[in-house]
Amino acid sequence: MFLIHCPYCNEDRSELEFRGVGDAHIDRPQNITEISDEEFADYFFMRDNPKGLIYERWRHIHGCGRFFRAVRHTVSDRFVMTYRQEEPRPDDATIQAKLAGIGGQK
Hints:
Folate-binding fold; 4-stranded antiparallel beta sheet; 31% strand; 6 strands; 2 helices
């Protein structure tokens, strides 16, 4: 078991309280009813599966219930940082500082 930091509750909580809900910062179709089946399948099902850092959306289902975003390392499964849904994607310097300063925990 590991801990995930909820940026709204401002607490580290058990992974059992959270659910991953997919990639963060993806381009969503403006009018989904006007795209082809192939375009929809590409948008809905096709995702990168990188070895390294990934940006994800999570929900604190057994806490505040809010959605937030996280930077997670797919090899170690460690959370580098979490941030509120309305905040922009962190820049590389911020992520590298988090990796160096806190061992990839928040």
